[in-house]
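TICKET: design request
STATUS: open
ATTACHED STRUCTURE:
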């Protein structure tokens, strides 16, 4: 099922302070952020209440958004056909908030205001309703009034809140994200791209995996810490992409296969390292089972991602955990738990106490279990969908 279509597809961006639009905040110009927010919220055209400046040609614009410049405010009012949204350029607003407003039907014009009674979004239904009489207060976290300095402090904190994903595991949410967000914040105004961060973190993970070819605790601890650092910095690519509006299917796929490549290399190097140390063929068998579980699960998840991408966009992962209490709901929650990166902390702990062999056993069992649960749940979901009545045509 596709997304609900917007009732409002046009907007006027009210530039009360034009110079403000050309300042940087969170790795991009304020004007660029306003336009990307409008496009991600489903708007198709935006009228800007200022003449087009010389630097307009250098703007990074969202694909598919029609941007029109008006020499004066009245020209925008004359050219923009109602219904439309009036958006304050002196505020940032969450994409989901603007999208929610744009999809609603309104019996009368209304103005969504901030805590100081300043208009943030105005719903205009007809030319006679250019001034809204009804007022509605926006949730404090859904907007941010732009006040200097724009590139530090509370405004960047507000922007960075959009970086984390809801699917993070316990340790990733309460520890790793604090570190990755700090790194991402430092990188916001640099030329480092999300894909470059993915490649860098993947390289760290592969380097860490190679240390498990050694035979001493020092090698294991070094390798485990590098794999942990990979896990932390791997969050930066998505954070940078979401805050800068640089998400792409290529970036999502690069991140997906980079993670799985590191995990496969980790288990392979562990088994090879133990085999080099004592010659036991069973070590290679263990690593083959663990690595095979990674590859099989990755291939199955990849097919699922491709199927979901048609309706869910570039980000598509494992099944969302169900809130129910039945067997399938518990298995779905277990699947998502096994998919989290929190297992890296177990690797670090066992490396310090020189019990890496036990981790390889756990990885072999966990990899097979994860793949089995994934296949079972996909089959259950497919059977349930096939039993649903087809809509009338």
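STATUS: resolved
RESOLUTION: sequence designed for all positions
ATTACHED SEQUENCE:
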């Amino acid at each position: 099922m596709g997304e609900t279509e917007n009732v409002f597809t046009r907007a006027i961006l009210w530039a009360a302070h034009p110079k403000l639009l050309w300042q940087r905040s969170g790795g991009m110009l304020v004007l660029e952020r306003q336009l990307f927010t409008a496009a991600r919220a489903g708007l198709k055209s935006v009228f800007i209440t200022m003449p087009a400046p010389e630097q307009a040609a250098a703007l990074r614009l969202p694909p598919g958004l029609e941007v029109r410049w008006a020499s004066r405010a009245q020209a925008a009012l004359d050219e923009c056909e109602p219904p439309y949204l009036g958006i304050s350029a002196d505020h940032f607003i969450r994409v989901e908030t603007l999208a929610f407003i744009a999809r609603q039907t309104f019996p009368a014009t209304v103005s969504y205001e901030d805590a100081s009674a300043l208009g943030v979004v105005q719903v205009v239904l007809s030319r006679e309703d250019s001034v809204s009489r009804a007022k509605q207060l926006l949730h404090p976290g859904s907007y941010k009034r732009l006040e200097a300095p724009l590139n530090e402090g509370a405004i960047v904190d507000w922007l960075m809140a959009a970086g984390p994903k809801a699917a993070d595991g316990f340790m990733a949410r309460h520890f790793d994200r604090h570190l990755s967000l700090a790194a991402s914040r430092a990188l916001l105004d640099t030329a480092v791209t999300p894909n470059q961060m993915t490649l860098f973190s993947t390289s760290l993970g592969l380097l860490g995996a190679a240390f498990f070819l050694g035979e001493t605790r020092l090698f294991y601890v070094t390798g485990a810490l590098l794999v942990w650092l990979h896990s932390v910095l791997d969050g930066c690519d998505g954070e940078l992409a979401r805050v800068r509006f640089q998400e792409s299917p290529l970036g999502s796929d690069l991140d997906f296969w980079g993670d799985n490549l590191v995990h496969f290399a980790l288990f392979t190097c562990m088994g090879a390292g133990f085999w080099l140390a004592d010659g036991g063929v069973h070590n290679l068998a263990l690593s083959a089972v663990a690595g095979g579980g990674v590859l099989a699960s990755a291939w199955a998840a990849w097919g699922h991602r491709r199927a979901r991408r048609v309706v869910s966009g570039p980000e598509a992962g494992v099944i969302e955990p169900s809130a129910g209490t039945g067997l399938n709901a518990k298995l779905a929650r277990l699947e998502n738990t096994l998919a989290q990166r929190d297992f890296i902390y177990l690797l670090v702990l066992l490396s310090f106490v020189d019990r890496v062999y036990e981790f390889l056993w756990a990885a072999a069992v966990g990899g097979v279990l994860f793949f089995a649960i994934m296949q079972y749940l996909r089959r259950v979901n497919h059977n349930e969908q096939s039993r649903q009545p087809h809509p009338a045509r």
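CLOSING REMARK: The chain is about 55% helix and 10% strand. Confidence is low (pLDDT under 50) at residues 314-323, 386-393.
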